[in-house]
Amino acid sequence: MPLPSLSREHQPVYREVMTSAFRMAWREWQYWPLALFASFLFTSGSYDVLLRSVDGMATLSNVILSSAPATSSLFSWMTASGDTIDLLLNVQILFAVVIVTLLILVSSCVAQGAIVYAIGAHKLGRKPTISEAIRVGGSVFWPVAALNVLSLSGIWILRMFMSFLLSMAIRTQGADMWFLYFISFLFFAAATFAIAVVQIFTLNAVILQGASLHESIVRGWKMLSEHWIVSIEIALILLATAAVSGGAFIVLCFIGSLPYFAATAAAVATNSVALLTATRIIGGLVFFGAIMTLAAFLTQLQYTAWTLLFRRLGEGGVVPKIKRMFRDASGINSAPRS
Questions:
Q1: What is the pLDDT of residue 241?
Q2: pLDDT of residue 336
Q3: Alpha helices of 124-227 — where are they, by DSSP H?
Q4: What three-state secondary structure class fits 50?
Q5: How far is residue 223's CA from residue 145's CA, in Å, rounded to a whole number?
Q6: What is the DSSP letter of 31?
Q7: b/e sequence 302-331, b meaning 16+ C-beta within 10 Å
Q8: Smallest Cα–Cα separation from 155: which of 68, 37, 41?
Q9: Cα separations (Å) of 212 from 92, 147, 218?
Q10: What pLDDT, on a 0 to 100 scale, did the predictor assign at position 183?
Q11: 124-133, long-range: CB within 8 Å, 24+ apart, which pairs?
């Protein structure tokens, strides 16, 4: 007698979500520019937020160990010359950097709202234009900006605390301090992951459900607390995808560097400045374009995966694969067999 077909609840959710996410992220390449701008704030991605936070702890711990504050370095740069004209020029440069940074942050917040709206609308059968998505992203700028401030503030506080513990462990070299740092690091990793996932769930609730920021945060936390295993499954798949993509990109860069070095050698041998300049410009543009394309695709893949998971969780919940494997092995609540 054939086995009864499994219900949707027993299907591997990560396979359903990631298959659709890969397909949509690749086919809907017109949204890649939005995804690229959305990535500037380093939020809405679980594994990359965690990895960047861990990577920055060593640098921050060195700052804590250093006796010279960063502000003194900035003041020294601005007042390096006693000339008033040079001082005003340095102030103008600093002001321009601040303005450009603010513009990038604003565009990133708008792009986050735009990409989530575009993915959500596409799932419902619509295909919004980029201009329409940007208009929606602009209309929810303030809650999205507030959400990013809350997320980044929480992560920075955690990173400051971990960097302080790391600096103390390096300074004292005590086993008890290193043990405390290890235990705290486990908490830091879990808390950073939770902040990143709740942030993307909250973003979806704000844009796709029209909920207030407070209501969206509550919904995001509830989703993560009830479906944390599924969230970890999705995050691990995204991490593996990024690792494989990065490795493939390095291999392609090595292969692509062969004609670049050949052209450079030919330019040097023939003493051709024009060929050397053209080789460097074309090589730089190709390399830069490849990096931006890969970053845009991986970012859109993350937004698509988490948005599809958000919608999937809203359809009645899911059963993670680990629980299904336990059911099959133990026979508890498993599908009937004859």
A1: 93
A2: 29
A3: 130-139, 141-172, 175-208, 213-226
A4: helix
A5: 22
A6: G
A7: bbbbbbbbbbbbeeeebbbbeebeeeeeee
A8: 41
A9: 39, 11, 10
A10: 82
A11: 130/30, 130/31, 130/33, 130/34, 133/31, 133/34
Interval 253-300: pLDDT, tens:
899 889 999 999 998 898 888 888 999 999 999 999 999 999 899 999
Local confidence band at 69 (pLDDT 50, 70, 90 cut-offs): very low
Which tokens go with 333?
């609540």
Is the whole-model pTM more than 0.85? no
For the chain, which residues make up each domain, given as ranges?
Answer: 11-328
Residue-level pLDDT at 211: 86
Look at residues 4, 5, 13 and name the one whose alpha carbon lies nearest to residue 315: 13
Q: Which residue has the tokens 């970012």?
A: 299
**Spatial distance between the Cα atoms of 44 and 300, rounded to a whole number of angstroms:** 10
Cα 74 to Cα 49: distance, rounded to the nearest angstrom: 27
For the segment 219-236, the average pLDDT, to the nearest whole number, is 91
Reduced to 3 states, what is the DSSP secondary structure of residue 26? Answer: helix
Tally of CB atoms within 10 A around 69: 10
